[in-house]
Amino acid sequence: MSQSRTVKRKIDHINLCLTDQVEFKSKTNGFDNYEFVHNAITEVVIDKIDLSTIFYGSKIDYPLIISSMTGGARKAEKLNEKLAEVATFLNIPIGVGSQRQALEDNSYYSSYRVVKKAGGMVPILGNIGAAQVAQSKKPVDLIKSLIDMVDASAMIVHLNPLQELLQPEGEPNFKGLLVNLEKICAKIEKPM
Questions:
Q1: Structure confidence by residue, pLDDT tens digits, 92-122
Q2: Using one digit for the tens of pLDDT, what is the confidence trace for 146-190?
Q3: Rounded to 5°, angle at Cα 47 from 41 and 49
Q4: Which of 44, 110, 153, 168 is the most buried (most CB within 10 A)?
């Protein structure tokens, strides 16, 4: 089976993150804009600090998320599995990478579904691009199918017009996005 351009791009993204320097290059973390008054006197009991919160109806242990990462390629499956295991261990939410590839064919559904399998009960965020939502003739059915694929607690519609314009297989047509989002939000019970 030959790989689609989308699958090849997914693999390229993984390889870039594994082999190139992709760290943020800022020389500051932002705290140099603030001065904190040191006060060492405290009666804090560290074990009594509760960082847990409710995230889309589920209790999570920390206000952190493993953001939308990958999917849509064989190489992505093991990464998503390991990330979901970490999310389960920490009891924090996890997002899948763009499910755009899954709209092309079902060859790599398992690279997305593994997040639910390994993630247990943690909240999972589905993910699709604004261009795919805009171009969909049946946007409600589209989102329902993507939510069902990963048993998503919520759905992310990522906005990336510059990326869509510049990448060779990009889809830079966003006409109809707002109308389709209104249709989706009126019919889908999951948060968008």
A1: 999 999 999 999 999 999 999 999 999 989 9
A2: 999 999 999 999 999 998 899 887 899 999 999 999 999 999 999
A3: 80
A4: 153
d(CA 80, CA 78): 5
The neighbour count for residue 154, using CB atoms within 10 Å, is 19
Quickly list H helices, the chain: 5-19, 74-90, 100-104, 109-119, 130-135, 139-150, 161-166, 177-187
Tokens 């997040």 label which residue? 115
| Beta-bridge partner residues of 95 | 125
Identity of residue 35 = E
- What are the Cα distances from residue 94, in Å, to 33, 68, 120, 136, 154? 31, 7, 11, 26, 11
- For the chain, how long is the longest CA-to-CA vector? 66
Residue 84's SS3 state is helix
Cα distance between residue 14 and residue 21, in whole Å: 12
What are 39-73's pLDDT values in tens digits? 889 899 999 999 999 999 999 999 999 998 899 99
- What's the whole-number mean pLDDT along residues 65-92? 95
Q: What are phi and psi of 27, to 5 degrees?
A: -90, 5
Return the pLDDT at 54: 97
Task: For Cα atoms 70, 188, 105, give the angle at the middle one, nearest 5 degrees.
Answer: 40
C-alpha to C-alpha distance for 73 and 8, rounded to whole angstroms: 8
